[in-house]
Amino acid sequence: MKLEHVDEDHVRVTFVWPRPDRQVSIRAQVFDDPNALSHPMQRVGDEWRLDAVVRADAVFTYQFIVDDPFVDADTTDLNLLAKLMADARTRSFADPANPHRIFPQVAVIAGETEAPPENWDSVAIMPKAEPMDWFDGPAPELTIRHVSGRQIDVLHTDVLHSGDDPVVVLLDGECWSRVANLPAAIRRLGLKATFAFVHNNGGPAERFAEQTCSEDFANHLADEIVPAIGTPKDVIIGGDSLAGLAAAHAAFTRPDVFGGVISTSGSHWWGQLVDGEPEWLTRQIAQADRKPVRFWVDVGMLETGVTPYAPGVDQRAANRHLRTVLQAKGYDVAYHEAPGGHDFATFRRSTLKGLLHFLGA
């Protein structure tokens, strides 16, 4: 990866794969079609290259894909998409010239806990990016529990914790420790709460079914997961992407249990499959009486590509609309746009800001 100054606010990034492989693509959310799963690179001598102009404060992930399986594939078929992602994992490589890496999210969701570092996601950190080294270093030990067949990893940050401690429920739980190393940042910042990292059951199709405003899933979280942690007075629920949508829906559905939401890059465009219109949950919030729930809503500035599941709506626009509806209904809502994309390099930074908003330092 090579950087070239463009102006005070932008740099040109040239991604370089240094081997003469047959065909190479790159996965990164900085090109003209941000939602594309890959972008073909150009052969230059014995290298492959592709460049983009990005914000000088951006942080995002990328990988090189050799013999790209996503070319011309139907990525709206979730079962096919899961197979393609499995095929791509061993063909997807970190940048050998960039030491900044995180464990690949797709591997974790597929149930894998190990992957060679050469197959991790590279993290691009631009020159003016906000310094944030809280994720470096060893993570504290988590207590593993199983509730109704679902794994929960629990972190008590206060040795003298009591029933009055707030509880933070984070969906996509397997990703927050293995990919984001969020427990290390929580411990280093001294956040006082009990954290429950709730794992998914099944693969991408099962995750999609649970996290797209399922009332059964919301009740499972409220009636089974939270009581297994304790009897707290204050429960905050959070998640990323579809899990951010699920977190907001759970609090909207069960405000008797969940009093705060951290929606990190939530998939609030969802709804087309229900009644032919996108943003189903936002429309429900607009029509209902205000609930006693506080919101942290964030999204990445790079998340501007239209999704095939909601024609005409992109992730950033959907989150801006949710923010505006919440404000109009009188909710306590904080909103943040991060200079990043739809990946855990951004998710972990934004989620940590949300935790600080609710819990303080």
Describe, in plain words, how this protein is organized in 3D.
The protein has 2 domains: 2-125, Sandwich (Immunoglobulin-like); 143-359, Alpha/Beta hydrolase fold, catalytic domain (Rossmann fold, 3-Layer(aba) Sandwich), CATH 3.40.50.1820. The strands form 3 sheets. Strands 11-12-14-13-15-16-17-18 form an 8-stranded mixed β-sheet, sandwiched between helices. Strands 3, 4, 7, 8, 9 and 10 form a 6-stranded antiparallel β-sheet that branches. By secondary structure, the chain is an alpha/beta fold. The protein contains 11 helices and 18 strands. Helix content is 30%, strand content 26%. The model has no long low-confidence stretch (mean pLDDT 92).
Short description:
By secondary structure, this protein is of the alpha/beta class. The protein has helices spanning 78-89, 105-109, 173-178, 182-189, 204-211, 215-229, 242-253, 272-275, 280-287, 315-328, 344-359, and strands at residues 2-7, 10-17, 24-27, 39-40, 42-44, 47-55, 59-66, 92-93, 101-102, 121-125, 143-147, 150-156, 167-170, 194-198, 235-240, 260-264, 294-300, 332-338.
List the helices and strands and how they pair.
Layout: E1 2-7, E2 10-17, E3 24-27, E4 39-40, E5 42-44, E6 47-55, E7 59-66, H1 78-89, E8 92-93, E9 101-102, H2 105-109, E10 121-125, E11 143-147, E12 150-156, E13 167-170, H3 173-178, H4 182-189, E14 194-198, H5 204-211, H6 215-229, E15 235-240, H7 242-253, E16 260-264, H8 272-275, H9 280-287, E17 294-300, H10 315-328, E18 332-338, H11 344-359
Parallel strand pairs: 13-14, 13-15, 15-16, 16-17, 17-18
Antiparallel strand pairs: 1-2, 2-6, 3-4, 3-7, 5-6, 7-8, 7-10, 9-10, 11-12, 12-14
